[in-house]
Amino acid sequence: MPNRPFGRDQAWLLPPSLADLVPADHPARFVAAFVDGLDGTWWQAFGEDLEGEALGAPAYDPRALLSIWVYGFMTGVRSSRKLEVACREQLPYLWLTGMQTPDHNTLWRFYQEHRPQMRELFRQTVRTAVKTGLLLLAVQAVDGTKVGGNAARERTHDAAGLKRLLEKTDATIADLERQNAADQPVPARLPRELARAEKLRERVREAMAEVSREGGPKQVNLTDADASLMKNRQGFVAGYNAQAVVASIEDVEGGVKSQIITAADVVATAADTGQVLPLCDQAVETTGEQAAVLVADGGYHSGPNLAGLAERGQTIVMPESQDRRCQSPYHKDAFKRDAKSDSYLCPKGQRLSFLKQVKRKGKAGIRVYGGIARICRGCPAFGVCTTDRRHGRNLEIGPKDEVLRAHRRWMDTEGARATYRWRKTLIEPVFGIMKEQQGARRFLLRGLANVRGEWLLVAAAFNLRSLWRIWAQDRSLT
Question: Which helix (H) or strand (E) holds 355?
Fold first, then answer.
């Protein structure tokens, strides 16, 4: 079989056009269509004037710069230096910029200036999905994932660790100062090692003040003060808790094609409990519609969350983290309430009367009910129901207990169990794509505000990836 003709000096027969080298259904073309479709009002909210300034050197068009960052985050290129190289070497970027090659400083300044407005970009991607009429909003899923920060885990210290580090740093500075003896010429600036040690000492002192402050954190990371130690599948990392609410989007033929993130946020605490209500409000704000059913894992389970969602008229499918305890035949749900006498009947028929009202872990309004210790000691269930020989069985009933009981009954139905099975296919693939294909396993920025902007751009880019697949089938959707 003969070889094809080959040569690196082949000339173009006609002047080349980049448009001929970027396919019509390429994601870069969709990014351009999306960004070019943003009107002047949106750009003003984003902090840019498309007309530019009357005086001064010509600036890059903000549409070109935004397109670079969006396409980069869609394809896993999230560094301004890597984007600079891509703008010189890769055809999609050359087409997006019209053969212009902004350097990394220009790209960084644009990203830094507009990071607070990334929520506006994210909202626009959700609204674009809503306009297609293909977004399925009846059932949505909420979940969180731990993402490593731009900080080493070993740089996280508590008060005792900071004290030891300060002592070590003081000793290092004293040693460096001795090396710069008085009989040597005074340098114009501090030696590099001494300057670095002085800076570290100042940061350690600031961190000690933070952990000593009333209500302050127990630990502080010296690289990124907002990052917290969190456990993920790889172990403990100094990072953040990234949150998302996800809905399905159909393709033009009616099948479920992909997902759209309808709400996104980042918090510096590992617990998910306090995030579900704000995320639901954000999803309503971006889509204009409240999900009839919300699916979540046990990390979001709490009485206040169930009560808040019930007030909104929202059904939530969410297991309880203490599900095994609930299966006990002597769990407090097995005690029947007698509203007339304000008492409870145990499964063996003993009456538990109201004793007092207490406060537990900052929660007020907890009512305590107790039986007769003598009867409890003689009960066949003693040792299983209670082991307290002095007081017998007590019940602590909080103000949200009725809501919790109703939710447990709902979760025991086949409909709830079937709906909960959707969670894995609805939201877990989203985090997988964001981490593996968009490169968001680790944040590149530091500080909660900056990290939040980075996550919102990742979420916006994810939505545009999903919309691009729909657009490639039917380009009239843009």
Answer: strand 351-360
